[in-house]
Amino acid sequence: MTAPPSGSSPLQPAAASGKPPIRGTVLAQGSSLILLLALLAAGLVLPLLFMFRQAFLSPDGSYAGLRYFRAYLESPALLESLRHTVSISVMTTVIAVPLAFLLAYALARSAIRGKALFKAIALLPLFAPTMMHGIGLTYLFGNQGFVTTGLFGLLPFELRIPLYGPVGIIISEVVYTFPQAFLILSAALSVSDYRLYEAAETMGAGRARQLLTVTLPSVKYALAGAVTVCFSLSFTDFGAPKVVGGSYNVLATDIFKQVVGQQNMALGAVVSLVLCVPAVLAFIVDRVVSRKQQAYVTSRSTAYRIRPGRLRDAAAYIYACLAALAIAALLAAVVLASLIQVWPYNLTLTLSHFNFADAAAGGMAPFWNSVRMSLLTAVIGTAAAFMAAYLIERISLWRGLRQAAYFLSVLPLALPGMVIGLAYIFFFNHPGNPLHALYGTMAILVLSGVMHFFSVPFMTASASLKMTDKEFETASLSMNAGWLRTFLRITVPLSLPAILEMAVYFFVQAMVTVSAVIFLYGPQLKLASIAVVSMDDAGDTDMAAAMSVLILGMNVAVRLGYEALSCRLRRRTVAWRGH
Amino acid sequence: MAREGLTARGVGKSFGAFEALGGVDVHAPEGKLTCLLGPSGCGKTTLLRILAGLEQPDRGEVALGGRSLTGVPASKRRFGFVFQSYALFPHMTAAGNIAYGLKGNMPRREIGARVDELLKLVRLEGVRDRYPAQLSGGQQQRVALARALALQPEVLLLDEPLSALDAKVRVMLREELCQLQEKLGITTVMVTHDQEEALTMADEIVVMNGGKVMQAGTPTDIYDRPADPFVAAFIGAVNFLPEWVGSASPDSRLAIRPEHVRIARADDIFDAARRELAAGAAERQPGLRRTAGCLLLAGRVEQAQFRGSSWRISVLLPHPSGGAEPALIHADLPAHEAAGLRLERGALLDLALPETRLLSYPSEACR
Lengths: 579, 367
Hints:
Chain A is an all-alpha fold. Chain A has helices at residues 12-17, 19-54, 67-74, 76-108, 115-123, 130-141, 150-153, 166-189, 194-202, 207-218, 220-236, 239-244, 251-261, 265-293, 310-338, 365-394, 399-410, 417-428, 442-452, 455-467, 470-478, 483-494, 496-512, 528-537, 541-577; strands at 340-342, 346-349. Chain A is globular and about 80 Å long.
């Protein structure tokens, strides 16, 4: 790379040109930090404050005190939604976490083949909007569903389940939260310490006792994390209840009705605060968990050794197949339905559902809007999250401000999309706000996307920066390269794998999200995920299916492109990465 | 014939193409402390794990008091095992770790008393309710020991139990471990790569290299009569003398430990020999001048290192006819004996090698 100019003494430059670059560095770093804080303030803090304030204001703008909180507690309909939401979340958690644990355990602790494939299928729901799970369920278990009608009449009996309502919502949420819990638990199971199993064995502990006394304690924090994630995700989800909820109201659909239907902003704000409760709890649990989990493995730990066990492998294989089959069937039903004339009466293939011309949404525009919005979110979000991580991890200015920036960077983990969307309405739609012009534009959609999904990529970047040695940067600076040059030529290339991963995360999340943007899209700026909701609402389920398939296809393509790219990157950089 | 103690017969084990153990026979006598000693990769830890049942041998068998242990899983052998760096359960207290093996094997009420007894045995009464992360390295080691002893095992297996500790604690625990072993009279096998640890602690030492047993015997046996050049060099230091320093047959080479090399000086018992040398009255064969039961050699000081209680003096022996490279020989001299000597580089010294201390090996083994 850049060698120091030949002939110059290593001691000389510091005296000759040391001072001006340092002052420039401070200036550049300081202004970057202020810019970041401004972004977090405009995109997060102020909107949240406005939403909080809204809960205490009556429509004419006068202070209403706790009137709307009282109204909430006195409304039987709203309280019923709360009960519904809690029971949905509890059921989802109780079902999804054990299912995910079993799969994670089967893949981590058995010697079966095709683990990569099982894992890929288990993660597939992450790439689809949650409405798609609901739509898939209607094709399988709805009134004319494939299973309901006894495989379209092939079987002599029918198999009806009361899909529309809690059952459908719970199944959809289980599919939606399963991959998240699976990821958390797989990570925890993959870092166990084999010596502990051997120690238990020499003291006479059998397999069952080892599971209870070694395995479970080692993943207990991950289990707590998975439980809170499943609970808060299903607590705040909007897509699935919208599609298969029927008349079964939950909090997320309530907010939508209060705000969009009845223009009752204050009550909407109150419901939003309720919506935040489990997410805030999940946030706290996650903070505690990530701190404690690390202490469990040490540098002396040895990797888990899978011993031969045919019965165990057979059981693991059967379970993995069943789990993969269930997920694949659900998504395959949607793909098939989007390619079939009329499910289930006319099973000839057609591409007509992909011609969205006669749908309420109007053509392919929503899809391309979504792609554009996701690309912008990926680029801007990655740059912002990486800069944030860099400024917080690496510079030594203003400790207090950096801590504030850190807190704000992880805070979005605790914010449901609906809350962000609603907060943005209150803030950006406020007539006195100079940023009012953003309302209804692409800019606000991108900003909401960047903020909503900020925390995970931010933590990816932090972890990557923590792993790369600070000495490289010091070395570059000592060779008299400026701070910006060091950042671009040293820091960024060393973190390139993390940066790609962050961008893909932003893109995929922005493609599937519906909760925040449903409040924010302008009349000319409909997004694909919103088109799915409105087409399904209008009864054009086949087109909603087709649009879901496009979203899923786009995400899977982007993900595969990322895998190919990072594989090439690994091969190219294996020489200097050393593994 | 049934032998008391723990026996491995013809035990072999390969990992893929790598042969970790090539059919070894090892006997750990009952009630004694046996050390498996060797450089890293010599197969000693694999052998210990096979003794414990944590690893299955490809061939051969392990027997305890003549009773074969083939097919008995680790959990049924009831051997105590102390892991390198201990593998304490991080989520259980010291007492919880020690009680782990007792649960289900002992009435619940008696467990508490037994745990206290064990904590007292390893002198850790005060840390009963602490977690491993709150214990020092030495304390963790003792908890691991108490945990291994909890079920009153017939055999105690220790995998480099002291290697993770700093030097001072290591020496202290070495003594404690020996006392405890003696007190309990438990058959013990300990793996170590530290020859000093093996010499001070063991009743029996098994020296291993390359998946084979090189020599087994008491510490003094092994130190004074190492069976081959590897053992001689691995345990303590040894000088291999150049081929021209006469030995009985041309196929063998002599060796001697540095502390057995004596320096001949005017005022000591070798005075006579020195005078003889000067007069040219001794045998003319180079390197084979003998007197008073010693081999006599002359050389120049290359280097002298002060080591506190002793000096290590490196002496360069020129080839008698100048035909080959000069050979370097080390001598360890107690500091008080070195007091009157001129030890600067180039000074002439006469060395005396007592014949009783000479070791002889086939020359091809010394390469």
